[in-house]
Amino acid sequence: MTAQDDQSETRKGWMSLLAKSPPARLAALTGEMTDWPGFEWLRPPETGGVMVRGRTGGTGAPFNLGEMTVTRCALRLATGEVGHGYVQGRDKAHAERAAMIDAMMQTDRADTLRRAVLDPLATQMQANKASRAAKAAATKVDFFTMVRGED
């Protein structure tokens, strides 16, 4: 894997985390930051729809499942870094925060942002996932067949 591929995978990870984060939690984590850099909009926040596709059993032929509302935006920091934000729903502020953090993660402030925003988001999302898994495991039914000795 090349350095560029590794960097691309890392960026995919934080963009996915930002897109899936609860808007209120992201706002709370970024609310204390008052030193946002200057930027210009490449694409101001806009809401639209995307077609969601699925596969039967995860491997079957693809089919159109339905539409989903998405908000997206793109911005360029005064220093030249470009950030993109794609989030489910109609929350323009959430998309803007995601784009700003994406752009700032490409600067020398990346380590600070990772500790202040991304790490707490990842921890919360892992805890939520574990909680859902525990609830699902509590309802699991193990079926087994008893074989009688007559056959």
Written overview of the protein:
It contains 4 helices and 3 strands, in the order ααβββαα. With 151 residues, the chain is of the alpha+beta class. A 3-stranded antiparallel β-sheet has the order 1-2-3. Helix 1 (3-20) packs antiparallel against helix 3 (92-104) and helix 2 runs antiparallel to helix 4.
Compressed to H and E, one letter per element, the order equals HHEEEHH
Compute the number of strand runs.
Answer: 3
Strand order of the largest sheet: 1-2-3
Percentage of residues in strands: 25-35%
Distance between the termini: 57 Å
Report mean pLDDT, rounded to a whole number. Answer: 89
Radius of gyration: 21 Å
What is the structural class? alpha+beta
Shape type: elongated
Instruction: Summarize the main sheet.
Output: 3 strands, antiparallel
- Number of H/I helices: 4
Could you give the topology of this structure?
Blueprint: H1 3-20, H2 23-30, E1 39-55, E2 62-77, E3 82-88, H3 92-104, H4 110-138
Antiparallel strand pairs: 1-2, 2-3
In short:
It is built from 4 helices and 3 strands; from the N terminus they run ααβββαα. With 151 residues, it is α+β, with helices and mostly antiparallel strands.
